[in-house]
């Protein structure tokens, strides 16, 4: 609020907010009073009441004039009358830099904008400067309308001034980019229709970090919203038997519209790291989008980013087998594409622990008759050496990827005589091929950690801070072998204790045995059968956990231990929960005959504590598949009731 404007009185603020025409007519002297309404409040005239001129010059604390308030609340006719009374109000900006048009566009009041624009034409008011006014975020009213998907508002604004679509905000985002990233297909189609026959620049479809609206369409392809006939969630069941699946407009539909604007540069334009939309599609495994882009321009498969990575490199790096096969089917010479280190997609696949090389070789073996060219392509790719003279086989050996090595060693085309320039030796025994895990490179472990927790789907971040297959959060330093050995010892000790306790509990059931036939006294009760099942699951899980840990103790490779330790940890957690469940069921079966309510409370308390422990780990989350073992215990006992 400028120093020249007084603070708006309460009566005027309420009248403008709720659209009380008679009150506004009295306070502002608007023409054409209108019929009285139930909300009309008579205001007694006094010498201290602000006059009409002062009311027009007043504003709220945030600088909103009466026209701002009327436009924000969609009172079109009152806004038109107010504008005719004082035309300067249309040019006034509040503390956020918003004009009345910004406010109307933000809340989707296309009628307000339409009436104001029409009346401005009648009064020969030059609207060009007003429409292009920007707020503190350097956004026009068209930015607001495009962001919130108001098609009617966009239609009014872009028809009045089509060059508004070329204005960008502080983040270099155009209205077309905002509509695309927010998934407003109708707005995207409308803007494209107005731009199709015009000469446009990069600003018309620009986004942050030199992205384009086509990049945004690829990212939106991971947000396809569908309506299912029925679906189940872990916290409840919802059935929609009479609801038909409704097809929603996806990123692919928006890409089809955006490609109408491509005159040879849009599809090939890269972001700040020179990553094209096809790189994005390869990274997030968007098959339909990749096919559409390749059909539009097959040369997109040969575009490299700032690191020299082509789309097939990215697909191999992320372990997307179907995407790699798609690129090879469209361009058989994709294996010849090299990055800045002189590596093809086979090198990249051998470097990452995703077993994509093994899967490719498996496909080549099955497709000898239907796709014989694939075998030849993989053969040539496996012989290629990078700038250091390293082959994919040597990279897999240095990384300690056993499955990839076994797959390569089975193939007769691998040349074992090749050595890299740093004299990396690779020994091979025809009868017993083995690779020492001690050859694992320390630097490779850091690379693996860097690529491990990548954001494949950018649902939470509309504006990625960095390129999808490069950016990741800071990783914790890799654990030492001594720390992993300590973990193994701790889990093994706990597993042995649980196995001992559950073994003893199986032969000392609650309630004891009958002296006549030796059967359990409480054996016919449902809770007793559930107790036995929980005890058995706890014993078996702890036994298997101990067995796995004994097997792991014979290996001294840190990377191997870290990958394989997840199984005994999961078994140990399951055994712990089932042991607590067996304890609670044992108390319940003994206390229920005398204290029913108290026994139920004890059972629920113990079960809650067990499940809370089970899901307090970072890698374990709530879900129906997580509680399945405990549901099975209860259901089986109930069936045998």
UniProtKB/TrEMBL annotation:
Transmembrane stretches in the record are: 490-507, 527-550, 570-591, 597-616
- Subcellular location, record wording: Membrane
Its Gene Ontology cellular component terms are: plasma membrane
Which superkingdom, per the lineage? Eukaryota
What keywords would UniProt list here?
A: ANK repeat, Membrane, Repeat, Transmembrane, Transmembrane helix
Q: How does it sit in the membrane?
A: Multi-pass membrane protein
Q: Where is the PGG domain?
A: 484-590
Where does the record place its ANK repeats? 96-128, 307-328, 388-411
The cross-references to SMART domains, in alphabetical order and at most eight, read: ANK (SM00248)
Q: Which SUPFAM superfamilies match?
A: Ankyrin repeat (SSF48403)
Q: Which Gene3D superfamilies match?
A: Ankyrin repeat-containing domain
Q: Which PANTHER family does the entry link to?
A: ANKYRIN REPEAT-CONTAINING PROTEIN ITN1-LIKE ISOFORM X1 (PTHR24186:SF50), PROTEIN PHOSPHATASE 1 REGULATORY SUBUNIT (PTHR24186)
Q: What is this protein called?
A: Ankyrin repeat protein family-like protein
- Per the UniProt record, the source organism is Rhynchospora pubera
């Amino acid at each position: 609020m400028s120093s020249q404007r007084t603070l708006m009185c309460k009566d005027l603020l309420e009248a403008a907010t709720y659209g009380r025409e008679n009150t506004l007519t009295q306070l502002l002297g608007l023409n054409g009073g209108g019929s009285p309404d139930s909300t009309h409040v008579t205001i007694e005239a006094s010498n201290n009441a602000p006059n009409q001129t002062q009311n027009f010059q007043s504003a709220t604390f945030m600088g909103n004039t009466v026209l701002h308030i009327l436009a924000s609340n969609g009172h079109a006719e009152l806004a038109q009358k107010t504008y005719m009374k004082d035309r300067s109000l249309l040019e006034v900006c509040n503390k956020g830099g918003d004009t009345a048009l910004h406010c109307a566009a933000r809340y989707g009041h296309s009628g307000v904008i339409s009436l104001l624009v029409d009346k401005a034409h009648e009064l020969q008011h030059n609207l060009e400067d007003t429409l292009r006014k920007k707020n503190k975020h350097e956004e026009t009213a068209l930015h607001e309308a495009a962001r919130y998907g108001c098609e009617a508002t966009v239609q009014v604004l872009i028809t009045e001034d089509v060059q508004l679509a070329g204005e960008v905000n502080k983040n270099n985002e155009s209205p077309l980019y905002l509509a695309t990233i927010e998934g407003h297909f109708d707005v995207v189609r409308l803007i494209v229709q107005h731009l199709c026959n015009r000469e446009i620049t990069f600003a018309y479809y620009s986004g942050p970090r030199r992205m384009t609206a086509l990049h945004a369409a690829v990212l939106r392809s991971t947000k396809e919203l569908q309506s299912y006939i029925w679906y189940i969630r872990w916290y409840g069941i919802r059935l929609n038997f009479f609801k038909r699946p409704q097809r929603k407009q996806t990123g692919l539909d928006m890409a089809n519209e955006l490609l109408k604007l491509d005159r040879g540069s849009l599809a090939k334009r890269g972001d700040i790291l020179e990553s094209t939309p096809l790189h994005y599609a390869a990274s997030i495994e968007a098959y339909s989008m990749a096919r559409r882009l390749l059909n539009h321009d097959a040369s997109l498969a040969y575009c490299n980013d700032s690191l020299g990575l082509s789309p097939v490199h990215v697909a191999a790096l992320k372990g997307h087998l179907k995407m790699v096969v798609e690129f090879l089917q469209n361009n058989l010479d994709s294996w010849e594409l090299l990055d800045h280190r002189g590596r093809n997609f086979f090198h990249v696949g051998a470097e990452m622990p995703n077993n994509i090389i093994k899967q490719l070789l498996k496909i080549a073996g099955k497709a000898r008759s239907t796709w014989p060219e694939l075998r030849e392509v993989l053969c040539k790719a496996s012989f290629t050496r990078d700038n250091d003279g390293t082959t994919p086989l040597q990279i897999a050996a240095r990384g300690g990827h056993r499955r990839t090595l076994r797959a390569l060693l089975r193939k007769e085309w691998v040349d074992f005589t090749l050595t890299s320039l740093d004299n990396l030796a690779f020994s091979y025994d025809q009868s017993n091929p083995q690779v020492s895990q001690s050859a694992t490179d320390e630097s490779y472990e850091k690379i693996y950690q860097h690529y491990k927790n990548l954001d494949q789907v950018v649902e939470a971040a509309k504006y990625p801070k960095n390129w999808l297959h490069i950016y990741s959060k800071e990783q914790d330093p890799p654990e030492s072998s001594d720390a992993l050995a300590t973990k193994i010892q701790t889990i093994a000790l706990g597993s042995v204790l649980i196995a001992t306790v559950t073994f003893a509990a199986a032969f000392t059931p609650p309630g004891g045995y009958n002296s006549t036939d030796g059967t359990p006294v409480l054996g016919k009760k449902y809770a007793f059968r559930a107790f036995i099942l929980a005890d058995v699951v706890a014993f078996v899980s702890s036994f298997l956990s101990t067995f796995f840990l004994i097997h792991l103790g014979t290996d001294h490779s840190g990377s191997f231990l870290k990958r394989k330790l997840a199984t005994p940890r999961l078994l140990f957690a399951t055994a712990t929960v089932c042991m607590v469940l067996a304890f609670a069921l044992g108390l319940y079966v003994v206390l229920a005959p005398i204290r029913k309510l108290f026994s139920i409370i004890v059972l629920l308390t113990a079960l809650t504590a067990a499940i809370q422990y089970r899901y307090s780990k970072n890698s374990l989350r709530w879900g129906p598949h997580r509680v399945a073992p405990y549901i099975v215990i209860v259901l089986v006992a109930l069936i045998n009731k």
